[in-house]
Structure formats: structure tokens, C-alpha cells
Automatic annotation (TrEMBL):
Family membership noted in the UniProt record: Belongs to the UPF0145 family.
Organism: Allopontixanthobacter confluentis
Annotated protein name in UniProt: UPF0145 protein GRI44_09285
InterPro entries named among the record's database cross-references: UPF0145_dom_sf, UPF0145_YbjQ-like
Lineage top rank: taxon: Bacteria
One Pfam family it belongs to: YbjQ_1
Transmembrane residue ranges: none
Length: 105
């Protein structure tokens, strides 16, 4: 399945638009991850644990979106947008959402 942020796929004309598809994933922050991340923030550097969680959430959101497109009979998703939002009390959760238009190419 072709997934792209662009409105078209060069060399592959869109034969049909099937509708908007989405994938959302909400992950909670872990107390120990928070503790080590705050230490990383103090001494500098990157927070590998948070980056791992963020990457996993993004991949899962994209996979959900692709699955929804396939269920509609699509073989591509164009115009993909990925958004990140902090949720919950004290920003304790992160939502990653992916959306686009399912197409047949």
C-alpha cells in the first residue's frame, strides 16, 4: 500500500476516492520513564525511552489508518497528516493520530 503526504502519487493516477481514514493511538506516560526523562532533561541529551514510545505510537496509528483504507477496498492513502496531542491530567498521555484519504490507484 502506498501512503503519502502528497495529494497524488506521481505516475499512478487515482481511479477512485473512498473517503477519509484515520488511526489514533493514545499512550500513557510511565512513572519511571518520566523520572529518567527528567534526569536526561537536566543533564542534556535525548530521551530515548520517550522517542521509542513515540515511534511505536506513530507506527500503530499509521497501521490502523492503512487497515481502514484496505477495509474500504483501497490500495493507497494520500494527503496523510500526522498529529500529536498531549492529553489527560497534567499531560500524562500522548495521542498520535494519522488521517488521509483512502484511494484506489
Amino acid at each position: 500500500m502506498i501512503v503519502t503526504t502528497t495529494p497524488t502519487v506521481e505516475g499512478h493516477p487515482v481511479k477512485g476516492y473512498l473517503g477519509i481514514v484515520t488511526g489514533e493511538v493514545i499512550v500513557g506516560a510511565n512513572l519511571f520513564r518520566d523520572l529518567f526523562a527528567s534526569i536526561t532533561d537536566i543533564v542534556g541529551g535525548r530521551s530515548g525511552k520517550y522517542e521509542d514510545v513515540l515511534a511505536r505510537a506513530r507506527k500503530e496509528a499509521l497501521a490502523e489508518m492503512k487497515s481502514e483504507a484496505m477495509a474500504l477496498g483501497g490500495n493507497g492513502v494520500v494527503g496523510v497528516d500526522i498529529d500529536y496531542e498531549v492529553l489527560g491530567q497534567n499531560g500524562s498521555m500522548l495521542m498520535v493520530s494519522a488521517s488521509g484519504t483512502a484511494v484506489v490507484i
